[in-house]
Write a structure and sequence with these properties.
Layout (H helix, E strand, L loop, with lengths): L1 H32 L3 H17 L3 H20 L3 H17 L10 H15 L3 H17 L3 H17 L3 H12 L6 H17 L8 H6 L6 H14 L3 H13 L8 H17 L3 H15 L18 H13 L3 H19 L5 H28 L3 H12 L4 H15 L4 H24 L7 H26 L9 H11 L1 E8 L3 E7 L4 E7 L2 H12 L4 H5 L2 H14 L10 E5 L33 E4 L3 H5 L10 E5 L12 H9 L4 E5 L5 H7 L5 E5 L2 E2 L8 E3 L4 E3 H5 L7 E5 L7 E3 L3 E3 L1 H8 L4 E4 L5 H18 L2 H13 L11 H4 L2 E4 L8 H24 L6
Parallel strand pairs: 1-4, 4-5, 6-7, 6-8, 8-12, 12-15
Antiparallel strand pairs: 1-2, 2-3, 9-10, 10-11, 13-14, 15-16
Helix pairs in contact: 1-2, 1-3, 2-3, 3-4, 3-5, 4-5, 4-21, 5-6, 5-7, 6-7, 6-21, 7-8, 7-9, 8-9, 9-11, 11-12, 12-13, 13-14, 13-15, 14-15, 15-16, 16-17, 17-18, 20-21, 23-25, 27-31, 31-32
Keywords: Membrane, Transmembrane, Transmembrane helix
Protein name: CHAT domain-containing protein
InterPro entries: CHAT_dom, TPR-like_helical_dom_sf
Length: about 850
């Protein structure tokens, strides 16, 4: 009897399972047959019901099928963000349940390909690359040549979009070695190769060398397209328009999507704009808008609520803005571009993708500031100033600020599981990125396809968390600057604030004090650019300044005036937020007056009259910090004795720090990377006296320990909260310059890891003078507990030290160290004693007063 019951139960369970699988397929096929919003809403409800019942792999596969078709509909409906998340869920389900083992469902064609394309369309370049690399590997393993070539083509197109033309040519060369490629694929590869060959060389259509290296273009469309691109490169806009129209005539319009048509209209509008035919340009932009927003009928400005994450909108609105004659209307269109850019970047998780998207935002900010500056010249209205400054600060150190906000939120809610999970995933993402970079550079053996897969999985998980965190705590996106808070803080700090925006055509300088605002425009002509770069190169080595002191003094004073520091209202403290190349200028070494003296001690350096403090953006300046109650120091001194890289005077530096009662010093073989990583989070002050390098366009910045170096990327995965990091090493503030974000330096790595305040160097510093400076710094720091005061005082003491030779008083030896952080009040031992005496006296007075009082009678 029990056996019969078991068989009946098994058969009924199997029937139910088969029915559920069939129900899922039926629901998906019914939706495919009749796609509309009503059937979509029905499908969502069915999907929720199916998820709660699914048990078998076959049912999981059926749900993947449903979700891929749902995502396809969303993609075609221009709901790109939801489409991406739906494809991501489908891929995760397929991957987690290892569904490739039970089916030959084409996950590449129906999920990964469209997902990769959507990432590209929404400027999520990191996820796009990881996805395409994923399906290239899958296609290679399954020996699916067509999909493998398709992946190579899509990856090449992605690299071409990002301007990585040498990578495109390498990929195309690899693909061309594969036999029996289809004619259509060969044509695509040829087009990619032709455009990247053209873009990676300075040439014109008369340059025979490049024409001979061009691949053969078969179709009339591709031929005219290449001729158009060549004419455009040579600024022959009449010929470019002619070739563009001919390529359009030979294009199969039926194969184009609405988005493709809209992009083509924008491209034609851009050509007419270059030909100064503005009415024609505007008409094509209007056509593009109507294709992407079919319900938009007016000639006015679209509502933000009707827009979606589509990068074509940015091209449309940017050009629309440039066509306007009224500043407010132009700014309104630029604001629409910013809005769409925010929609695109809201789902980005990797800092590489975020940084790549900052460049276009920076250009747009410059256009907006330029419009407002013209209005400001006519009417110096404070509101115009404020709007311009908001554009200047909009994306400055944006990635650094975002990670700081996440860490601040976690510090307020240290037990929140969502925030803890997000931090762990962010650390994992940065660690994987570091491993990927090292494997690409050949420093570390690892399978790139495995890393791409893991990075994609982490990104998908981070995105799913982001919405839950936003729902719980609200958006952390940058808001409008609070000028009342800025002015109050400046008044409290007795400071003036100077903010720079380093654009393509001009540098804008904003000055704020508690009493006034000023806005200046410094044209970036050849002379100004040269004066900035020449001044930076004065610090390439010690002899440059010492061999021609008079040249230095004239350049230092001229740059002081050029950068409008002479216009700043006099205050004891000067806060500078640099930008672009100005990140590498030691402002303290500028001269406030023209002088004929060659005696460095007598020169009117800015440091002799001001406390100069730097910061990455205004919000970092306003950030509240709880002052550390202890000042325990961890010093790291590899020394590297008995080597060509020995830092002999680093030992003196260590001895100076050892005198401080709460200092822990790791020296020689104890100064390992592992020991530093283990101990760093336990100390409020970290001091690293070692070698460092700013890296280059290929290699990231790094800092050396006794056993091995640590790259900036490794620091990104750390989580420390030191009050102060002192980087007593070469080039710790130098790195690849990223527009808006600053230098990708070791200092930035520590700031990303959580350091509140930093003292670091801008060039290759001298070992002996650095040891002297650091000794002077800590002597002052021990007395004041104020980094910015100690930094300045150490420089003044160095300049006035009779034991330091005249030659060594050159600013090359003392001005390398810049302080990024808060202005801190002085805390002398005398003031602490006075405070306790005052409290004690007050208590005695109160005691005597109470004794003299008569008891009250009720």
């Amino acid at each position: 009897m029990k056996s019969i019951c078991f068989i009946i139960f098994f058969i009924s369970g199997l029937t139910f399972s088969q029915n559920l699988e069939e129900q899922i397929y039926n629901a998906a096929e019914a939706f495919i047959a009749n796609k509309n919003d009503q059937s979509y809403q029905r499908l969502i409800q069915q999907e929720i019901d199916f998820k709660n019942k699914i048990k078998t792999k076959d049912e999981q596969l059926a749900l993947v099928f449903l979700q891929c078709n749902k995502a396809f509909y969303l993609k075609d409906s221009n709901r790109l963000t939801i489409a991406i998340s739906t494809y991501e869920v489908a891929w995760k389900r397929y991957n987690d349940h290892q569904l490739s083992a039970i089916s030959d469902y084409d996950i590449i064609e129906y999920c990964l390909k469209p997902l990769g394309n959507l990432y590209t369309k929404t400027n999520n370049y990191t996820n796009a690359e990881n996805t395409i690399q994923q399906y290239i590997t899958l296609a290679e393993n399954s020996k699916n040549k067509d999909q493998y070539i398709a992946g190579m083509i899509n990856l090449s197109a992605l690299y071409q979009t990002r301007g990585m033309h040498s990578s495109v040519l390498e990929l195309v060369a690899k693909a061309e070695r594969i036999s029996d490629i289809s004619i259509a694929q060969k044509e695509k590869l040829n087009s990619l190769k032709a455009f990247s060959s053209l873009s990676s060389k300075n040439t014109n259509d008369k340059d025979l060398s490049i024409r001979q290296n061009m691949p053969t273009i078969e179709t009339p469309f591709a031929k005219h397209r290449l001729a158009y691109q060549l004419a455009l490169k040579n600024k022959d806009y009449v010929k470019a328009l002619e070739q563009f129209k001919m390529s359009k005539q030979n294009q199969k319009e039926k194969l184009l999507t609405i988005r493709d048509l809209a992009k083509r209209h924008v491209e034609e509008a851009q050509l007419y704009y270059l030909l100064n035919e503005f009415q024609a340009a505007d008409s094509f932009l209007e056509k593009a808008i109507r294709l992407l927003l079919p319900n938009f009928k007016d000639q006015g400005i679209p509502e933000k609520s009707n827009l979606y994450a589509e990068n074509t909108f940015i091209d449309i609105f940017d050009l629309k803005a440039r066509l306007q004659t009224q500043s407010e209307k132009a700014l309104a269109f630029y604001d629409l571009s910013f809005h769409v850019a925010n929609l695109l970047t809201s789902s980005l998780t990797s800092q590489e993708s975020k940084l790549a998207n900052l460049i276009s935002n920076r250009k747009r900010s410059e256009w907006c500031i330029d419009i407002l500056f013209e209005d400001y010249e006519k009417n110096a209205n404070p509101e115009i100033f404020k709007r311009a400054l908001n554009y200047a600060e909009k994306d400055k150190a944006a990635v650094l600020q975002e990670v700081s906000q996440k860490k601040t939120l976690l510090s307020k809610h240290p037990n929140d599981s969502l925030l803890l999970q997000e931090q762990e995933l962010l650390k994992k993402q940065e660690h994987l990125t570091d491993v990927l970079i090292k494997s690409q550079l050949g420093y570390q053996a690892s399978k790139n396809d495995s890393l791409n897969k893991q990075l994609l999985e982490v990104s998908i998980s981070l995105n799913s968390l982001a919405q839950a965190i936003c729902d719980k705590y609200g958006s952390t996106q940058n808001k409008t600057l609070d000028f009342v808070m800025i002015e109050n803080q400046l008044e409290f700090d007795q400071a003036a604030l100077v903010v720079y925006f380093y654009g393509s055509n001009a540098i804008y300088q904003f000055e704020i004090s508690s009493r006034q605002h000023k806005l200046f425009k410094i044209e970036l002509n050849t002379e100004v650019t040269k004066s900035i770069t020449d001044f930076i190169h004065l610090f390439d080595n010690a002899s440059v300044i010492n061999n021609n002191v008079n040249s230095f003094t004239s350049q230092a004073f001229e740059l002081y005036k050029t950068l409008k520091i002479d216009q700043v209202v006099s205050h004891p403290n000067l806060i500078i937020i640099p930008d672009g190349l100005l990140n590498f200028i030691p402002f303290e070494a500028l001269l406030t007056e023209l002088t004929e003296t060659t005696n460095f001690t007598k020169m009117p350096f800015l440091v002799t009259s001001k406390n100069v403090v730097y910061n990455s953006n205004i919000n970092f300046y306003l950030q509240k910090q709880e002052k550390a109650t202890n000042h325990q120091i961890l010093g790291v001194f590899p020394v590297f004795e008995d080597s060509s890289q020995a830092l002999v005077y680093s030992v003196d530096e260590a001895l100076a720090i050892k005198k401080l009662s709460k200092a822990k010093v790791l020296m020689h073989t104890d100064a390992t990377k592992a020991d530093f990583l283990k101990m760093a989070s336990q100390y409020s002050v970290l001091h690293l006296s070692t070698h460092a390098t700013g890296g280059d366009f290929t290699n990231p910045a790094s800092i050396a320990f006794y056993d091995q170096p640590m790259s900036a990327n490794e620091l990104y995965s750390m989580d420390i909260q030191p009050e102060l990091v002192v980087l007593s090493a070469c080039e710790t503030g130098i790195g690849r310059l990223q527009k808006g974000e600053g230098a990708m330096s070791i200092a930035r790595g520590f700031q990303y890891a959580g350091a509140k305040n930093l003292l670091f160097s801008l060039w290759q510093i001298n070992d002996a003078s650095t040891a002297t400076l650091m000794s002077l710094f800590y002597n002052s720091y021990e007395k004041t507990r104020s980094t910015h005061l100690a930094n300045r005082q150490s420089k003044l003491d160095y300049l006035n030290d009779p034991s330091v030779s005249t030659t060594k008083k050159s600013p090359y030896y003392w001005s390398a160290f810049v302080y990024y952080g808060k202005i801190e009040t002085e805390e002398t031992h005398g003031s602490v004693i006075y405070y306790f005496i005052s409290i004690f006296t007050m208590l005695i007075v109160l005691f005597l007063w109470f004794r003299k009082r008569k008891p009250t009678i009720r």
